[in-house]
Amino acid sequence: MIELKDVTFEYSTGDGIEKGSAGGADEKISNGSLRGVNLSVTEGEFLLLTGGSGCGKTTILRLINGLIPNFFEGRLEGSVTVDGFDVSHAELYDTAKTVSTVFQNPRSQFFNVDTTSELAFACENQGMEENEILRRIDNTVNELGLQPLMNRSLFDLSGGQKQKIACASVAVTGNKIILLDEPSANLDLKTIDELSCLLKRWKSEGKTIIVAEHRISYLWNLADRTVVLKDGQIVRELSREQMDKISEEELHALGLRSANKYCHPELVSGSHTQEMLKQVQHDESDISNFLTLQNFRYKYRNGYQALNIPQMQIPVEKITAITGNNGDGKTTLLNCLCGLGRRSKGTLLYNGKAYNRRQRQKLIYLVMQDVNHQLFTESVLDEVLISQTEENEEEARRILACLDLEQFADRHPQSLSGGQKQRVAVASAIASGRDIMLFDEPTSGLDYTHMLQIGEILRNLKAHGKTVIVVTHDRELIKECCDQEISLHDFNQI
Prior knowledge:
Layout: E1 2-11, H1 27-30, E2 34-41, E3 46-51, H2 57-64, H3 67-70, E4 74-82, E5 85-86, H4 92-95, E6 99-102, H5 115-125, H6 130-144, H7 159-171, E7 177-181, H8 189-204, E8 208-212, E9 225-230, E10 233-239, H9 240-245, H10 248-253, H11 274-279, E11 290-299, E12 305-315, E13 319-323, H12 330-337, E14 345-350, E15 353-355, H13 357-363, E16 364-367, H14 380-385, H15 393-402, H16 418-432, E17 436-440, H17 448-463, E18 467-471, H18 475-481, E19 484-487
Parallel strand pairs: 3-8, 3-9, 6-7, 7-8, 13-18, 13-19, 16-17, 17-18
Antiparallel strand pairs: 1-2, 1-4, 4-5, 9-10, 11-12, 11-14, 14-15
Helix pairs in contact: 5-6, 5-7, 15-16, 17-18
């Protein structure tokens, strides 16, 4: 069905660096290049590709769907065949009739502005009749329960909702090979369960499925085989029987995340639970120990109310995880907290002082979920320097070194991988010296090692008296470093 034979691939300089790449002295290895890879996937097999960031998972998917060498240029040796034809010599539109791909960032694969048109797009490109397209859309929407998302602007959807539309756009084609690249990166637990059910359905239909993923727990019981990569080579293959027997310690030794689906955090003893937080909402004696949100509201231009929080208190100098389902308003809350939401209403009380929206912009630093929106300079070092109140290159380089970024100091931020860009944004947050730091899905697309690194950074910020608020779906990160968890659903009265 799919065969990679003696495949070696090296990206052209600065091209196609794999998201989440950890970097290193040898960029040819660390940027997702492959060395002598042999891999066969049989028809109907469910294959899990995993390994550290930058190991080559995404590159393998790009070889199978034809993006390499048709879009991402580089030096390719060996052969890649899919369903009997050499994809490196096939046109992309021909490969697309057999292979469908769900990308980590669904925005990169959307071609329309509304959800219904997006579902129709791939079928239209294959020249299907209108009635057949409408039939397929109706079946897919009903099977996946997407009625609330139809005829909606893609720009108004949350990250998880966009991912649902991306999966639906794949399902509607009926293609027999489905590739997914970090599909759970921005999904909540409920949506991950829904994704797992969808994958199970595709598997029962005989689809050939390959998933490149760091968060392996929701796939562990579905996959027929797991392939572990490191530095562009396959270092371990696990059969279904071996997957059933491997221990958590062995997985961590391979640099992999937990295979335990029910990874719930054990929060620090003495930290406030949600019920305790509610009990102290009106206790004025405790107000100095909290950030107090009063009458926090946000309404979109179309009239939709995304936030309505009469009162919420978040402990200072602690690490608080804000959780909830996709679309609950978590990112909107962070934007309003730091003063980005121009239509936001409400007050933040901190150290006995009330801060309006403009004042909060100087008090709070936000690391966005899509860090491309906050990288502005010509070099990584400059990105850190502009965040400092007074430029201090020695300190800036020390911060970069703590995040494994020192070797990229002179690189343009936009030439880095997704994971590296994310760490540059974290470095800028540290350099800002702000009292309150917000992080929106800081471990999205990160492997086990770099998830632990982010956890250590957040703990260090807390140790230096910072108040850290993290929007996350990552149960392992919560367990690793968070003092408490607040479900936004418990406070958002919409």
